[in-house]
Backbone:
């Protein structure tokens, strides 16, 4: 095996590892967001449950954002990582949009109650 072939294998392993970390973080964030949205649209709204879920979502999203930033920087260190960086940045945008939409829904429905 040549040096460049070894580097390519290492880069693929690193990218797979990075993808797994992000996938796990995103899954946790989406599950929490789903629970919040489910609670938010019930006929009988449980303000305490919404407050707890909102706080959990903010925490999970902040952790995801920190992880995302670090991992995107790691993608740039990997040979041919720019394409992975761009794809991952697009995926992150979808999560950010959904998160911001949920926060806007809570703010419009409950105003300053949760802030």
Residues:
């Amino acid at each position: 095996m040549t040096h460049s072939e070894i580097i390519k294998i290492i880069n693929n392993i690193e990218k797979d590892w990075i993808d797994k970390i992000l996938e796990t973080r995103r899954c946790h964030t989406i599950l929490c967001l789903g629970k919040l949205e489910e609670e938010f649209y019930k006929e009988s709204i449980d303000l305490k449950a919404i407050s707890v879920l909102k706080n959990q979502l903010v925490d999970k999203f902040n952790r995801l954002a920190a992880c995302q930033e670090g991992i995107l920087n790691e993608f740039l260190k990997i040979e041919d990582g720019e394409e992975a960086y761009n794809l991952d940045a697009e995926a992150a945008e979808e999560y950010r949009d959904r998160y911001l939409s949920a926060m806007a829904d809570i703010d419009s429905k409950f105003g300053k109650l949760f802030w």
Q: What stands out?
A: The chain has a mean pLDDT of 77. Residues 3-40 form the longest helix (38 residues). The radius of gyration is 18 Å.
